[in-house]
Design brief:
With 240 residues, this protein is mainly alpha-helical. The chain contains nine helices and three strands, in the order H-E-H-H-E-E-H-H-H-H-H-H. Helix 5 packs antiparallel against helix 6 and helix 6 packs antiparallel against helix 7. The protein is globular, with a radius of gyration of 25 Å.
Amino acid sequence: MRNCINGILAGLDLFAVCDHNRGMLTESAKTPETNTVAHDRVYRLLRAKIMHGEIKPGEALTLRGIGKMFDVSMTPAREGVRRLVAEGGLLLSASGRVTTASLSNERLEELAAIRALLEPEMASRALPRAHMALISRLEAINAVIAEKAAKHDAIGYIQANLDFHRTLYRRAQAPAMLAMTETVWLQIGPTMRALYSRLNRTELPYDHRLIVAALKAGDEPSLRLAIRSDVTQGLRLLMV
C-alpha cells in the first residue's frame, strides 16, 4: 500500500513539474509574439504620422518619446524605428539621433522624378479595371479632399489625397510598384505639410478632376499627363 501511495505522490509531483514547465514555455512563447505585435503597431502608426505630415521635417524623435506616444516599452519602439530608418522615413545619425527627413532640392527632384515614372504607369495599368464603382469611389474621395481644403485641415487633406492615389493604383495589380511608391510618400510626408502651407489650397486640385475625366473617357495619354502633373508640380514649388 505504501509503495502504491508513494507512486501516486511521485506521479503528482511529476505532473506539477511538467505543468510548471509548460506554463513557463507558454509564457516565453507569448512574449516574442506580444513584442512583435507591439512593434508592428508602432511601425504602422508612426509610419502613418510621418506619411501624413503630422511630424515636421527634421524633427528629432526619441525612443522614450515614441514609447510614451504609443504606450509601449523601449524594445518595440526601437524595432519600429529600425524599420522606418530602413525605409527612409526616419534618419539615424552616427551619434544615434533619430529625425524625420529634411529634403534638399536635389532629393526633392529625385523623388519627384520617381513619382513621375511610377505613378503614371500604375494609373495606366489600372485603366482597364477602372469601372464605375472605382470612379464613384474616387469622386467621393475628391469630395473629402475639397472639404478638408475648405477647412484648411492640412493633415486630413494629405491623408485623403494619398487615399485617392492609393485607391486608383491598387487596381493596377502591381504590388511591388505600389510598395516603392509608398516608400517615396513616406520620405516626402513631412515636406508635404510644408507644401500644403505654401499652396494654401482652398479647393480640390484641378488635376484630380482631369484624372477622373480621363478614367471615364478611357483616355490613357490624358490620364498619364494628369497624374504626372499632379504628383510633380507641387514638389517642384518647394525647390528654392
